[in-house]
Design a protein that fits this description.
The chain has two helices and eight strands. 13% of the residues lie in helices and 34% in strands. Strands 1-4-3-2 form a four-stranded mixed beta sheet. The protein has a four-stranded mixed beta sheet with strand order 5-8-7-6. Strand 3 and strand 4 form a beta hairpin. It has 121 residues and is mainly beta. It has a single domain, classed as Roll (2,3-Dihydroxybiphenyl 1,2-Dioxygenase, domain 1).
């Protein structure tokens, strides 16, 4: 059992955020039909894993303070991290070795959120 079932990353411009995350993750971020005043885009996920979405709606405000979500960086998070600045973001903490737990990095996305990446390589 996982402690997390779902997460939302707040955005102010859903199209810009979809382009940013599609670029850094190298995978399609799929728009969902979620209503007239709200927009959601599903982050890539396989099987029974934890799901997440980019969400633009009233009351959702991007922030660099607060909870940091760590996205799966794949076999080596360097690939995604190397695309962050080209996609309009900023690397805050470079790839950092955390011993037997692999590596992590933190970036600021196109919306102003601080988001992490984690990988074993």
């Amino acid at each position: 059992m996982s402690a997390i079932n779902w997460f939302d990353i707040p955005v102010t411009d859903i199209q810009r955020a979809v382009k940013f995350y599609s670029t850094i993750l190298g995978a399609e971020v799929q728009m969902m039909d979620s209503g007239e005043d709200s927009f959601m885009a599903m982050l890539p996920m396989e099987g029974e894993g934890v799901g997440g979405a980019l969400t633009q709606m009233e009351g959702y405000k991007p922030s660099k303070d607060g909870t940091v979500v760590y996205l799966n960086g794949g076999a080596d998070l360097s690939a995604a991290l190397n695309r962050v600045e080209r996609a309009g973001g900023k690397v805050i903490v470079p790839k950092t070795d955390i011993g037997e737990h692999g590596f992590f990095a933190i970036f600021e996305d196109s919306e102003g959120n601080h988001v992490g990446l984690h990988s074993m390589g």
